[in-house]
Amino acid sequence: MTNITQLRCINCSRTYQPRPGFYTCPICGSTDGILDVEYDYDYINKYISKKSLAGNREPSMWRYRPFLPVAQEGPLPPLRVGWSPLYRSGRLGAELGLKELYIKDDGINPTGSLKDRPSAVAVARALAEGAGVVACSSTGNAASSLAGAAASVGLKAVIFVPGRAPQGKVAQLLIFGATVISVQGSYEDAFRLSAAAIEEHGWYNRNAAINPYLVEGKKTACLEVAEQLQWEVPDWVVLSVGDGCTMAGAWKAWVDLKKAGWIEKLPRMLGVQAEGCCPITRAFREGTRVRPMEENTLADSIAVGVPRNPEKALRAVRDSRGTMINVSDEEILAAMRVLGRTSGVFGEPAGVAGTAGLIKAVREGIIKPEERVVVLVTGNGLKDVANAIKAAGEPIRVAPSLEALHKALGDLKLPNYGWGYVPEPRLAERR
């Protein structure tokens, strides 16, 4: 694979050549020895350019294949992942006093989340390595995405989820034919059991915090943002943070583009965690190593009390001169409402935690009105209908009569738009 030069340990800086089943630095161990993929940018620039992308009709993340840790030839999962829309949000921007706000909606991916991106890379690499089984632990979204991608190519998927995983997400796994192991404990318990089983059985490891190639899949969201903004770099990129891998991937996109000579500056990164589970924010503020926390938030996809890739996330925020912020569950539910009401984008709690953090950062003066901002919505609201109802409230219930309807609408004091309007007769009636 000539686009990759080496893997580098982020802890000790030792370098290694890629090989099947090699995921972490053996000297530093699986916790501290996280590897980073390094590329040959001269090679990349031979195969892809801004000009070639302008004429590229591939509507998926694979338009950036030379930037990814997969061979330039070979099988890929057939599901269309990526090239999700980037909306300029005038209404939400106006409410916040921002002149230029963009929303990246990754909830439109095949299984409804950004996690489809790393899972596509995992399945492509598993196929290249001849693996028959892929496995991971997940609070829900990574599991759904892996199960779907594996089903699309006929790979067997074994998924470990904590007992609290929402039933909607578990249903997706079962529909896709995955073997689902519901671990009656925390996400950390599910992670440990999955890691032991993967090592014992030799399955392909899709755990993003361990497998260095999966962060590369996540970076395609921001490669798309750069292209969709005509290579104009935003001032801020805002996103929710759980394990730390999505933050690491988002930052890696901008770093890769700068090293390749495609952009001249880098954005600042704003990472958002839930107050009820914020070990990375705490480490950022205190300047210490990450310490475990309880998982006490309704944003299940970012409820990671023992994050496995915190160092890459912390470096991304610090190197970008960015910051971390926490939001309450109430602020997340409010963000679900305001995002839907002002933009028509429906995100799950973890998917809109970034939006909640954006709102808070603007109010606290961290983000200025004149700055260009991109916020990532990382998961679709249909993944967690119970909390969507909690955010939105119940529908209006009326008896089946116009009198009951008029009374209900009158109680709401809605504008009198359209009431009493008599339509013009249709052409047939005029005759």
TrEMBL record:
<comment type="function">
    <text>Catalyzes the gamma-elimination of phosphate from L-phosphohomoserine and the beta-addition of water to produce L-threonine.</text>
</comment>
<keyword id="KW-0791">Threonine biosynthesis</keyword>
<protein>
    <recommendedName>
        <fullName>Threonine synthase</fullName>
        <ecNumber>4.2.3.1</ecNumber>
    </recommendedName>
</protein>
<feature type="binding site">
    <location>
        <position position="141"/>
    </location>
    <ligand>
        <name>pyridoxal 5'-phosphate</name>
    </ligand>
</feature>
<dbReference type="GO" id="GO:0004794">
    <property type="term" value="F:threonine deaminase activity"/>
</dbReference>
<keyword id="KW-0456">Lyase</keyword>
<feature type="domain" description="Tryptophan synthase beta chain-like PALP">
    <location>
        <begin position="81"/>
        <end position="379"/>
    </location>
</feature>
<dbReference type="GO" id="GO:0004795">
    <property type="term" value="F:threonine synthase activity"/>
</dbReference>
<comment type="pathway">
    <text>Amino-acid biosynthesis; L-threonine biosynthesis; L-threonine from L-aspartate: step 5/5.</text>
</comment>
<dbReference type="InterPro" id="IPR036052">
    <property type="entry name" value="TrpB-like_PALP_sf"/>
</dbReference>
<feature type="binding site">
    <location>
        <position position="378"/>
    </location>
    <ligand>
        <name>pyridoxal 5'-phosphate</name>
    </ligand>
</feature>
<dbReference type="GO" id="GO:0009097">
    <property type="term" value="P:isoleucine biosynthetic process"/>
</dbReference>
<dbReference type="InterPro" id="IPR050147">
    <property type="entry name" value="Ser/Thr_Dehydratase"/>
</dbReference>
<dbReference type="GO" id="GO:0003941">
    <property type="term" value="F:L-serine ammonia-lyase activity"/>
</dbReference>
<keyword id="KW-0663">Pyridoxal phosphate</keyword>
<dbReference type="InterPro" id="IPR001926">
    <property type="entry name" value="TrpB-like_PALP"/>
</dbReference>
<dbReference type="InterPro" id="IPR026260">
    <property type="entry name" value="Thr_Synthase_bac/arc"/>
</dbReference>
<keyword id="KW-0028">Amino-acid biosynthesis</keyword>
<dbReference type="GO" id="GO:0009088">
    <property type="term" value="P:threonine biosynthetic process"/>
</dbReference>
<comment type="similarity">
    <text>Belongs to the threonine synthase family.</text>
</comment>
<feature type="modified residue" description="N6-(pyridoxal phosphate)lysine">
    <location>
        <position position="115"/>
    </location>
</feature>
<dbReference type="InterPro" id="IPR004450">
    <property type="entry name" value="Thr_synthase-like"/>
</dbReference>
<dbReference type="GO" id="GO:0006565">
    <property type="term" value="P:L-serine catabolic process"/>
</dbReference>
<dbReference type="GO" id="GO:0006567">
    <property type="term" value="P:L-threonine catabolic process"/>
</dbReference>
<dbReference type="Pfam" id="PF00291">
    <property type="entry name" value="PALP"/>
</dbReference>
